[in-house]
Each structure stands twice: as structure tokens, then as C-alpha cells.
Amino acid sequence: MTRAYFIEPDWPVPAGVRALSTVRTGGVSVGPYQGLNLGAHVGDAPEAVATNRELLARAAGLDSDPLWLDQVHSPRAVNAADWQAGVQADACVALSGGQVCAIMTADCLPVLFCDQNGQSVAAAHAGWRGLLSGVLESTLFMMNAPPSKILAWIGPGIGQQAFEVGGEVREAFVAQDAGAAVFFVPNPAGRWQADLPGLARHRLNGLGLERVFGGDLCTASDPQRFFSYRRDGQCGRMASMVWLEK
Q: What CA–CA distance (Å, rounded) separates 193 from 160?
């Protein structure tokens, strides 16, 4: 479901699990950040970002501030109970209520998780570097549930038709897993079109997750709804969040 500020994932989560992924509409930022920019690190006016975050908190009914991360395309996941402002990580895992796991994206994949009993949730920032280095594996390791009992939702990210990469990226994935080759299609420029959502789904399936949802929203091809770094360069950031109600 799409609301003024966010999309609610379509996945069969248990009662008490809340999740959303923001769109760019509805905020107060202007220029290249026009709309609901939630990134405080991209050059937007700090007061605009603060207002946008307040608008989102009210619209989503948040009881506590999101646990923002200093994202560095790493495999590191942190426990929400150990979170500190400025922590460098690319995933957050919450094992109790009221802790809002949040990651920001503008082409990289946001991947949200919950276990089928509603006792743990997580959010991961998965660009190609994060996927390759194991951010999804790190996240699952901290969730205190077997992968077969976990659901995942892949949020808005760059689609294959817009995501051109060099041969070195394909070679790195194929070196880890020969089955990843099918997610790269050669283009006329001698490079490759990479299916980032497909790679994430394939990796999750290989880890034992059978229930993987989403992955069909392309940021680069929808400028009305989404920021895209690959498309625009200087731009805002969306946020994807998941939490257990108190």
C-alpha cells in the first residue's frame, strides 16, 4: 500500500511487526533533494531534513526515533540494543519492541526481515558491494531464528535495465557462486546489466529463505516516486524501516 510518505510492504508478517519504505513525495526539501529527503549527509539543508523526519514520524506513528546508521557498504550488522549515533554499519537487528531499524538508499536495495513468530526484525543496506561482502549473511546470523523461519522483503532499488556494471563486478559474483552468472546480461557497450534484486533473492534462497517478497520497484525508472543516485547524481535518500511494536 502506498501512502503520502511511504509504501507498506506486501508480505505476510505476524501481528506486531511494522514496516515501511519511503517515497520522495510529501516533504519540504527543494532542488535536487526535492520532496522527502531523509539523508542528512547529502548536502540538503539540515532544517529541511529534520522537518522531513518529523513528518514521516507522525505519518508512520513512530514512538521512537529511527536508529540511523553511518552506512559504508560493509557487511557489518549491529544489534539495536548496542546502537550508538554515528555507528558504521549497513544493517540493524532488533530483538525487542520499540527499536526502529532503519537504512537509507537511493538505488541500493533495502532488505527488511522478520521472523515468523514476530520476535526479531532487521533492515539491511544491500548494494552490490554489500551483497558480495556478506551483509545479508551477517544480518541473518544475528536474528536468533533459523533462515527457514524468516521472511524478507526487497524494497525499491535499481532495476536491471538501468544498472550497468563492468566485467569485474560480474566476475566477483561468479567467483563466489557460478549460479550468479544468470543475473548478468551483456549489453552493446561490452559491459553488463546486473539484476541486483535477482542477485539478492538468489543469495537469500541459497541461505535457506524461501519466503522472499518484493524486488519489483525500480528507483532509476521512476523519478516521480524515487530518488536515484545512478540517474541524478546529487539527490536525496529514501528510508526503509522495520520494527516490533512495544
A: 6
Cα separation values, 233 from 61, 127, 141, 191, 197, Å:
32, 16, 34, 20, 21
Residue 207: inside a domain, yes or no? yes
Nearest to 237 by CA among 71, 123, 94: 71
Give residue-wise pLDDT tens across range 18-55: 999 999 998 999 999 999 999 999 999 999 999 999 99
Nearest to 71 by CA among 97, 40, 94: 40
pLDDT tens digits, 188-230? 999 999 999 999 999 999 999 999 999 999 999 999 999 999 9
Helices (H), 114-218: 128-133, 135-141, 167-176, 196-206
The parent domain of residue 234 ranges over 6-244
Residue type, 165: V
CB 36 within 8 A of CB 224: no
Q: Beta strands 6-7 and 109-115: pairing type? A: unpaired
The amino acid occupying position 219 is: T
Residue 180 lies in a domain: yes
Assess if residue 145 is contained within a domain: yes
Q: Which residue has the cell 511511504?
A: 6
Find out whether 123 and 241 touch, Cβ atoms under 8 Å.
Answer: yes
Strand order, beta sheet including 164-165:
164-165, 192-194, 184-186
3-state secondary structure (DSSP) of residue 147? helix
Cβ atoms of 153 and 179 closer than 8 Å: no
